[in-house]
Amino acid sequence: FSTRAAWTVALLFVSGLIVSIVQVRSWDQLFGTDYGLRLALKIGLFLVLLALAAANKVAFTPAVVRGDASGVRRLRGSMRVEY
Questions:
Q1: What is the spatial distance between Cα 25 and Cα 61, in angstroms, rounded to a whole number?
Q2: How close are the terminal C-alpha atoms of the chain, in Å?
Q3: Distance of CA 40 to CAs 22, 24, 53, Å?
Q4: Is residue 7 scored above 80 in pLDDT?
Q5: Whether the Cβ atoms of residue 37 and residue 20 lie closer than 8 Å to each other
Q6: CA distance readout (Å), 55 to 2, 7, 48, 65
Q7: pLDDT mean over 55-83
Q8: H/E segment holding residue 83
């Protein structure tokens, strides 16, 4: 499942990037229009979620498996932020 999810997210990102290039043709339009600002915000939030997912997979979940109490706390905090 993890491998499929990664490929699906990558495919969604690439398709979104293509649509973005078609819709927003310059950096001026990215930060100078309402559409561009919303798009930049969505990209930023998407990157935050990707960073949280990476932290969950690489650091927090293995810490929970090892029985580390701080890992449980960090994983719960990460899940709250994702929610």
A1: 40
A2: 21
A3: 15, 11, 20
A4: yes
A5: no
A6: 14, 18, 11, 14
A7: 89
A8: none
What are the DSSP calls for 14-80, one per residue?
A: HHHHHHHHHH--SHHHHHHSHHHHHHHHHHHHHHHHHHHHHHIIIIIHHHHHHT-HHHHHHHHHHHH
Q: Which amino acid, 23?
A: Q
* Beta carbons of 75 and 56 less than 8 angstroms apart: yes
10-68 pLDDT per residue, tens: 898 888 888 888 888 887 877 888 888 888 888 889 889 889 988 988 999 999 999 98
Q: What is the pTM of this model?
A: 0.69
Token readout for 2 is 């993890």
Q: Is the pLDDT score of 3 beyond 80?
A: no
C-beta of residue 45 within 8 angstroms of C-beta of residue 31: no
